[in-house]
Design a protein that fits this description.
By secondary structure, the chain is mainly α. It contains seven helices and no strands.
Amino acid sequence: MEYVLVLTALGGIALFLVFFLRSTREAREEYQGAGMGSGVDDCWSDEGRGSSAAVLGVFSSEDQQFVAEEGDQQVTALFRRERRRLAQRWIERQKCEAAGIMRRHREASRSAADLKPSSEVTLFLRYGKVRVMFEFLALSVWLVGPEGLRGLAESANTVFRGIQSAKALSGDKRGVSY
C-alpha cells in the first residue's frame, strides 16, 4: 500500500514539473520570438520606471475584480489566461536580463585589476536571491495566477534593480565599471 502512495506522489510531482516547465518554456519562447532578446531598449526596461509600472499592472487584483463583476465567465477566463501569460513573460524577461547583467559583469571582471572579493560575493548572493525569487514567483503565478502577488513581484524587482545599479556592480567605485 505504501508503495502505491509513493508512486502516486512521485507521478504527481513529475506531472507538476512537466506542466510547470512547459509553461515557463512557452513564456521564454514567446519572449524570444517577439524579438525582444536584447532587453535593454524595450518598453519594460527604461531604468526601472516601465518595469515598476508593469509590476503594478500585471500583478494587481483590481482589474481582475472589475472583469469578474462586469464580464461573463468566458471573458473572465480569457482575462486570467492572458494576465498569467503576461506575468510569466515579465518574469522570463527579468530573468534573462539578470543573466545578461551577470554575463557582462563576468566578462568585465576578467580584465579588472582591483576586484573586491566581498563585492563579488555580495553580487553573487544578490543574483542567487533574485533567481530564487523569480523562480518562486513563476511557480506561484503558474499555480494561482498573478493576482495578489504584487508584493512578491515588487520585492523581486527591487532586488533585481539593486543588481542592475552601478553601485551593486562596482562596489564603491573601484570595482568593475561599465
